[in-house]
Amino acid sequence: MPGQTLLNKIWQRHVIATDDAGRDLLFIDRHLVHDGCSQAFERLELEGHDVRRPDLTFGTPDHYVPTTGGVDGFANETRRNMVVMLEENAARWKFEHFGFQSDRQGIVHVIGPELGITLPGLVLVCGDSHTSTHGALGAFAFGIGATEMAHVLATQTLWQARPKAMRIRVDGPLSASVTAKDIILHIIGEIGTDGATGHAIEYAGSAISDLSIEGRLTLCNMSIEAGGRAGFVAPDDKTIAYIEGKPFAPKGADWDMAVAFWRTCVSDGDATFDREVAIDAASIAPTVTWGTSPEDALPVTAHVPDPAQQTDVGKRTRQAKALDYMGLTPDTPLQHIAIDRVFIGSCTNSRIEDLRAAAQILKGRQVTVPTIAVPGSATVKAEAEREGLDRVFTEAGVEWRDPGCSMCVGMNGVDLVAAGDRCASTSNRNFAGRQGRGARTHLMSPVMAAAAAVEGRISDARDFEPMC
Q1: Residue 466 pLDDT more than 80?
Q2: What helix, strand, coil percent values describe the chain, rounded to 5?
Q3: What is the DSSP letter of 174?
């Protein structure tokens, strides 16, 4: 048999049937739902179906929850009702639900891995585009729409066309202060937001192997921003160590069998990929975005590009439009761009490792612009407080919040960036209006966001020595 990619191995294990158009009916191992999934449950009820496998369905509110004020912090009753509806659906259909203010609540893409719900070799879906995050543990994970969610709820299956296989290798040691966020921003800057369209991305190479699991989660999270259907990293010893002992991970003899299977979840040495990209890790610097697309990514030492120098008419027009929205002038050094506020959080960068990294920059220093830190889950929040990270943030002048999607997308109606304000953000999208109407977003890593908070401008984290 010819060598198989990890994508093909997982896919073939889950095919139930194939239609005349070549689409496959896949069995879905895990279905994650959040407080934005009410339409799927309404459709399920309208069509008279039950939840087929409540034991494989897991829910948590994240998009609409307030990050201050607890139960009194909801912006309005509509948002409160979104959270209540998820709770009611969980009670009705009897699936696992980590409710608002529970000790396991959090962003769906944070709690899945940290609770051991996400496992290697699984097919996992969720009604959110950043479901690719879970691929960091060797799962094939992707976002779906409301109609597809209802189909999974009713049948625990989904019709899908198999994507092509793409491998992105990043080899060599990373430079100081270069993180997983910089790797993925660099990749998107190189291949563009459509560079992986129609593909599932497998990340490989020594730089990827050297990343922590949390770094891999950040990397896979933004695969969708490169156009990928999914992104994943083959499981290894780090993966197994990360999963062991987690609440929903296999136990006893099941654990031994699971580990034996997980070790087969790798691409064969002679596997053929439809597309391959190679990147030298040494070429990656701390990276920030300047425009309204994740592909508008440059090293922090660079200057705002001049659209007039762009030979492609379409790109020239897009860049000019982006500069107009962002209120930037060509050739301005990125480090001269003033910041109005900073957001440290989101499903991309709100895990304990991210908070530790930001705290290293902030310890002993003071922020000069409004800054909020939003942990990705109640588990992360509790651990951060055990380690005293919350005190580091608050002593630096940072507002320490409760878990939620928060200012990444502003759907809770409170955590928004004002029109015209510029935000240094650890989130995943910088589209026009993403963080609020007229908001201007610069994507960067937690250490870069912390540096920007201190300086009040885009800054190079490499210039910051730890204070102790």
Answers
A1: no
A2: 40, 15, 45
A3: P
Residue closest to 14 by CA, chosen among 159, 129, 198, 165: 159
CA-nearest of 108, 79, 71 to 414 is 79
State which amino acid sits at residue 61.
P
CA-based nearest residue to 385, from 362, 411, 361, 359: 359
- Cα torsion angle, 324, 327, 329, 332, sign: negative
- Rounded to whole angstroms, the Cα distance separating 88 from 92 reads 6
pLDDT confidence tier of residue 468, bands split at 50, 70 and 90: low
Q: Which residues of 388-399 are buried (b: 16+ CB within 10 A; e: fewer)?
A: ebbebbeebbbe
Q: What angle do CA 110, 32, 399 make, to 5 degrees?
A: 30
Q: How far is CA 395 from CA 235, 363, 366, 388, 452, in A?
A: 39, 8, 8, 11, 17
Q: What is the DSSP string of 296-357?
A: -EEETTSB---GGG--SHHHHHHHHHHHHHHT--TT-BGGG-B-SEEEE-TTTS-SHHHHHH
Determine if the pTM surpasses 0.90. yes
How many residues does the structure list for the chain? 468
Closest CA to 13 of 29, 1, 31: 29
* C-beta separation of 380 from 106 below 8 A: yes
Instruction: List the structure tokens of 72.
Output: 């009194």
Q: Which domains does the chain have, with CATH numbers?
A: 6-275 (3.30.499.10), 289-461 (3.30.499.10)
Average pLDDT, the chain: 97
**Looking at 23-115, which runs of residues are DSSP E strands?**
24-27, 30-33, 57-59, 96-97
Cα(15)–Cα(162) distance, rounded to whole angstroms? 10
